[in-house]
Write a structure and sequence with these properties.
The chain is of the alpha/beta class. It has 13 helices and eight strands. β7, α10 and β8 (317-322) form a beta-alpha-beta unit. It is globular, with a radius of gyration of 21 Å. The termini are far apart.
Length: 364
């Protein structure tokens, strides 16, 4: 027999604010104690300001939001979905000083929508439904793309994804979703097959995310004071990485971990239990592709990422090398110069692909 839980007295708003401030001060003091010689700030910037939400619902009953960063005034408003990597959530594209990727694209006249899917805490769905890569690409992505098309009135949607987000975009393009173009940032499609189970486990840990894994977003926040200048940062400022983990950190669904294990075992990006090699379906893709890879990344470097180009079905496909590691592609010290600028320029040249074919012909 189990006893009912005792009712717990909740803190009043002023007390909650005081407790949060005390915890924040404790973490900052702990950070300074553990890293006395480090002159950078504990967190680079405060949390991104709230933005409006566009809800969508999947055919199997999941609901999740798209976070909307509107185009700058007088912008044409072609829609672009930003899809995050493992271990991070949508706000990783909005965090930090300078001009993060979401704001950079909005400044160039794109209507930006940051994707949350069933693997994120913002999503809700029925128990017993799958929470893996296949479920996201087959159910969440079509529902999100449809919601953005209806919200903006455009025929097609541009897609930019980091890590897992780029993999989702490439597979969605091969499935002939209504995409206008795909940019994949540090998104491997081939994997070095491990010789032993120990090597397989090591590779899996390095994928969640590049060089680092923690099973819970809450644990990640508690662990922030211990994080200094680890190798997996690349050239990303420590305060920016800690801030992204603080405000955009996500746990990783077990279904995704299981599918990552399949990818490592098969050596390629596959469907559930290795039934379909997704890279073999890339020949059906009919949109331009830009693959951006980090030259110093072992898992998301040139060979694992540019393998997508060898089977890509559209002739407009290109690879862009960027110095550093996978984290640098979104959070790096030179992200605006090395990544966001070239990606924005590439997309601006192809922005009209979001328009209807009749309107494209009319405008020449």
């Amino acid at each position: 027999m189990s006893l009912p839980d005792k009712p717990r007295a909740s803190l009043a708003p002023p007390a909650r604010a005081l407790a949060a401030s005390a915890l924040d001060l404790t973490r900052r003091l702990t950070w300074r104690t553990l890293h006395p010689a480090d002159r950078e700030r504990f967190l680079e910037a405060p949390a991104p300001k709230p933005v409006s939400r566009l809800p969508y619902r999947t055919v199997d009953g999941w609901s999740a939001p798209l976070f909307h960063v509107p185009a700058a005034p007088n912008g044409a408003g072609e829609p672009v979905i930003l899809a995050h990597s493992l271990g991070f959530g949508p706000d990783a594209f909005r965090y930090g000083t300078g001009t993060p990727l979401a704001q950079a694209l909005a400044a160039r006249g794109f209507d930006v929508y940051l994707l949350a899917h069933r693997g994120d805490r913002e999503a809700n769905g029925p128990k017993g439904t799958p929470m893996d890569f296949d479920a996201i690409v087959e159910r969440d992505v079509p529902a999100a793309v449809k919601a953005v098309r209806e919200h903006t009135g455009f025929d097609r949607v541009h897609w930019v994804g980091h890590g897992l987000g780029g993999q989702l975009g490439m597979v969605a393009a091969a499935r002939r979703e209504a995409l206008a173009s795909v940019v994949a940032l540090g998104s491997p499609v081939r994997f070095r097959k491990p010789a032993t189970e120990v090597q397989q486990a090591a590779l899996l840990m390095r994928l969640l995310p590049d060089g680092w894994v923690i099973p819970s977003a809450t644990l990640a926040r508690l662990a922030l004071p211990a994080i200094g200048t680890e190798e997996w940062f690349g050239a990303a400022p420590g305060g920016r990485v800690r801030g992204a983990l603080e405000f955009a950190g996500e746990s990783v669904a077990l279904g995704l971990v299981d599918q990552l294990r399949d990818w490592i075992s098969e050596g390629t990006l596959t469907s559930r239990k290795g039934v379909v090699d997704y890279t073999s379906t890339f020949r059906d893709a009919n949109v331009p592709l830009l693959v951006v890879f980090a030259t110093e990344s072992r898992l998301a470097g040139r060979t694992p990422t540019t393998a997508a180009l060898s089977t890509w079905g559209h002739r407009d496909s290109l690879a862009l090398p960027v110095p550093g590691r996978s984290m640098d592609l979104v959070l790096g010290a030179n992200r605006e110069r090395d990544v966001f600028g070239p990606v924005s320029a590439w997309m601006m040249e192809r922005r009209r692909l979001a328009w209807s074919e009749g309107y494209q012909r009319l405008c020449g």
